[in-house]
Amino acid sequence: MTEAVLETRGIYKSFGALRASQDISLDLLEGEIHAIIGPNGAGKSTLIGQICGTLKPDAGSVQLLGRDVTHDPARLRARAGLGRTFQISSLAMEDTVLQNAVLGALGASGNPWRFFSDALSDKDLRNTAQEALLRVGLEDHATSRTAELSHGQRRQLEVAVALTQKPKVLVMDEPMAGMGSEGSKRLTGFLDGLRREAPILLVEHDMDAVFALADRISVLVYGEVIATGTVDEIRADKAVREAYLGEDA
Amino acid sequence: MIRETYVNALAVAVLLAVPAWAVIADEPFTITLMTRAAIFAVAAIGLNIALGIGGLVSFGHAVFFGLGGYAMGILAHHAQTYTALAEWPILIEGTKSMPVIWLLAVVLSALAALVIGILSLRTSGVYFIMITLAFGQMFFFFAISWAEYGGEDGLSIYVRNGFPGLNTLVPIHFYGLCLTVLFLVLVFAWRLVNSPFGLALNAARQAPIRVETVGLDPVRIKLVAFVISGAITGLAGAMFADLNRFVSPTMFSWQTSGEIMIFIILGGVGRLFGPVVGALVFVALEHWLGGLSDYWHIYLGLLLLLTVLFGRGGLIGMVSGRRAVHD
Q1: In chain B, what are the domain boundaries?
Q2: What interface predicted TM-score (ipTM) does this complex get?
Q3: Cα separation of B73 and B291, whole Å?
Q4: Which of the four CATH numbers 1.10.10, 1.25.40, 1.10.3470, 4.10.410 does domain B4-320 have?
Q5: How many pairs of residues across A and B have Cβ atoms under 8 Å apart?
Q6: Overall pTM > 0.80
Q7: Tell me: the pLDDT tens digits for B217-228?
Q8: Distance, first Cα to last Cα, chain A
């Protein structure tokens, strides 16, 4: 059996009386896309927050590439190879597309303490950034202000910034949201190839994309994983159909 | 509409031409006014790095301005009274050398900014404004009660401190020195904004979570920016004290913090030349309107209000029409 690159072990998280994560144990293996689905309010974003380090679990642990990172802040997990894209774009909106990508490359370089050189003419940073933009198809928008991008293009930029990190593991929170079907299809094709480079934990509402991409699916309902399995297993699972997919699925 | 570059060029032209005219027309007071503007601009460029780029609304930059001022005041006071600043554990004497005073002003302000920054950056938004204001008030009241160095009355320095190769008592010499510092600080700020550090700082203001996600520490980046910012404003404080040959607790007051902020808001927050234009306009208004009425601050307030409401990024934005770096 291959080693899990990312693993949560018995994570618990409550906000007051709301139990957002209850004993969540799941893993992500080399080369796979593991999708997390679940209705709104199931605790998907809370789970991602704990995996990426912006939230601390009440109990349980998070393992990244064989190391316990439960108490590491988000930036250290990022430095260790965890790339993340956000559900709500969190880019520097007043900056250009290229600047956002260069920021990613700068983070990967680990040395922001350069006060006199020009960031955008730094060859290494610029190459890494442009390569990532090229891969997601934003190379023609490099000089556009991020605020002027369409919703879908911002999603592409989110992915590009994550790629500049040369991540070993990717956590993506609804990368398809707000994309047209055309863009969604393109991104699906892109992620399909990406899994060999970095396995992806994918939270997504777009079921076509999930069923097309996922090697495994975990279903989260009221903070609990009620089922984990292959696409066919999940489609056939009675509890899942009742809780989430509906009878017509 | 004029391009921002032309507005900047105009500001430089004013900085060069007005004093040149003043020398020919023998109007030393005009040179003093221009020196005042240049020094204010340096102070505001300092604040602009924290506020304009880093989004750190510091209402306590008078701390650094005042520290620079008192660094000059205390060193020069001991030099002119021929007393030692400290005799134990080592003998420290006062000095009348501007470069030494400036160095000390920069180091002291940077240290103060480091401590204040570490404490203040645990908060953000209104709390950050309030905590920096509180630090400012602490220094203000400390200076008032520090009888050894003049307390409320401040310290008078009889002869302006010296700079190698210049006669700083000649107004145009001292102006030339201040203008050189201003240009150097401008170049530094320009490099900084476009540097990798500047990029990270800019992003830390807009989306700290993004900076964190790419593996950088937004708080540490803001802290370094705050230290740089404080050091520059501290340097301006030492220059200001030398211009007036006088330091008093007023330099530490919240009104001083407010004025430095006004320079930036008037000229344009986050713009390279915003502090320069703001300081020039402020000193011009202070001189002309102040000559007409003791209540000239009412008109300053009106102008400020109009700039904020309609300027979209200060006077530079109003004239050039280009959007501010951010709103």
Answers
A1: 4-320
A2: 0.92
A3: 29
A4: 1.10.3470
A5: 105
A6: yes
A7: 999 999 999 999
A8: 32
